[in-house]
Every structure is written in structure tokens, then in C-alpha cells.
Specification:
74% strand; Maltoporin, Chain A; 13-stranded antiparallel β-sheet; 261 residues; two-stranded antiparallel ribbon
Length: 261
């Protein structure tokens, strides 16, 4: 079941709220029994799940007297996974984002900036049947500038701060000591797009990536078909970068139009 609403109070202010509720009943397995029995799950790997998910997303958009756009996005998400064999988990997530956008027409520059908060509380038999809390705070700014009619350059910066409160727990293979894990890192990106001819575009980009481990990746423990999955509290974050160079060419064959990338 879902519901999407939006109400325009005046030419500057729009309010809305989206709702979604869904549930189910399903079974899944971790791996097959053997190559000759590939449609049969290995004993002890089948889990029966009764999931229930609910989210409510209030949002607001406002244009001030100077034409700047202000957006407020929020979400409350509740997840219940009632899983057999001691694998149930329950979580609540809170999301709040403020975004500001300004188009400086005199220099053909578009600026977008904002701040994000994401908080989660998770209780699960998979994590020692106790409650974990995680939090992500981020601020960002993005610039997009046009030079003439052919070249567009963009640059972005994001700074993230992550936290996990681990209450500690005892599991069959040992003890996970309580901890509070914090980490913060910047993330950068650059990009450019140039029109080299009629319907021909050359693009280049470079960007950094950063991923902080989840509660599940660090603290899950269970047994599937005789195989133990143990906590890894020392798991560290991932960082990297990627780059791209590409060309896109428009095509027209009679009434057929498309792009070759």
C-alpha cells in the first residue's frame, strides 16, 4: 500500500507526504545442496521470513524572493523481519536532509549545498539480541558551470562523519567488547562535458568513493548448514576512486533516432 500527496500552498511553497506499507511471507536459502541437486537447498540453510516495512516521507520545497530553492526531505522507516532459526531483526531509521540551490545567472553557475542526518537503531538476534545505534552526518556542496554553449564543468565536495555504538555481547564463539567507533572523511569529484560537434559529446570524470561498514557486516553471527558466520568488529572502511572518459554520438536513420555511447 502506498500514498503520495503534494499540496501547493502558494507559488513559492509546496508541502507533501508519502507513505508506504508492505509485508510478505517468503522463504530463502543460503546455498544449493550440490551441483547435481542444484534446485535443492543445503540442509540448515533455509530461512522463513515474515517481513513488514513502513515508511513516511514528509517533504517541503520553498522558493525565496531571490529565486533560491530550499528543500527539506525527511523519512521515518521501520523494518520488522521475523525470521526462523533465531535470525529475526528489527530496525528504525531516521533521515533528514536540507538542500539549498542557487542559480547565479550572471556567471552561468549553479550551486547546490546541503546537510544530511541518518540515524538507525537496530535490535537483532543476529547481533547478540541487543540494540545497536549508528549515525551518519554529512555536508556537501556542488558546483556546475557553463563556459559558452559547449563546455560544462562540475565539481563537488562531501564530508562524512560516521558512528556506531556497539553495546557488546557474548556469542558462542567468544565475546565482542563494547565500543564506540567514529570516522570522518572527505569525498571529492570532478567532471566535464564538451560538445565537439553536432550531437557529439566528449565527457570526462574523476571521483572518490568512501564506504563505512554496516552493523551487519561487523557484528552479525549465525550458523547456516553447519557453517559459522562470525563477527568481524575490526572491519575497516573502504576508500577508492574511479575515472571515466567517454564519447556519445547522436544517430539518425530515417525516423529512427538514438545515441551511440
Amino acid at each position: 500500500m502506498n500514498l503520495n500527496t503534494r499540496y501547493r500552498l502558494n507559488k513559492r511553497l509546496t508541502l507533501g507526504v508519502n507513505l508506504n506499507l508492505n509485508g510478505g511471507n517468503n522463504s530463502s536459502f543460503f546455498f544449493w545442496k550440490a551441483d547435481s541437486l542444484k534446485y535443492s537447498p543445503f540442509p540448515g540453510t533455509v530461512s522463513k521470513n515474515q517481513p513488514l516495512r513502513f515508511n513516511i516521507d514528509p517533504h517541503l520545497t520553498y522558493y525565496d524572493g531571490s529565486g533560491n530553492r530550499h528543500k527539506l526531505l525527511s523519512r521515518y522507516l521501520k523494518v520488522e523481519n521475523r525470521v526462523s532459526n533465531g535470525r529475526s531483526n528489527f530496525s528504525e531509521q531516521y533521515y533528514l536532509e536540507y538542500q539549498f540551490q542557487r542559480n547565479i545567472k550572471a556567471i552561468d553557475l549553479n550551486v547546490t549545498a546541503g546537510a544530511v542526518y541518518i540515524g538507525s537503531d537496530v535490535e537483532a538476534e543476529l547481533y547478540g539480541d541487543t540494540t545497536f545505534h549508528s549515525r551518519n552526518l554529512a555536508t556537501y556542496i556542488d558546483f556546475e558551470k557553463r563556459f559558452g554553449t559547449k563546455l560544462t564543468v562540475s565539481a563537488g565536495f562531501r564530508y562524512e562523519s560516521n558512528l556506531i555504538n556497539n553495546p557488546g555481547f557474548i556469542y558462542p564463539g567468544g565475546v565482542v567488547e563494547p565500543s564506540q567507533e567514529k570516522e570522518a572523511k572527505p569525498v571529492l569529484r570532478l567532471g566535464a562535458n564538451y560538445q565537439i560537434g553536432d550531437y557529439s559529446f566528449l565527457r570526462a570524470s574523476w571521483g572518490q568513493g568512501y564506504r563505512f561498514p554496516t552493523i551487519a557486516e561487523k557484528f552479525i553471527f549465525t550458523n547456516l548448514g553447519g557453517f559459522n558466520i562470525s563477527p568481524n568488529p575490526d572491519l575497516q572502511s573502504e576508500t577508492g576512486w574511479s575515472t571515466e572518459l567517454g564519447i556519445k554520438q547522436g544517430l539518425k536513420l530515417g525516423s529512427l533516432k538514438g545515441f551511440l555511447d
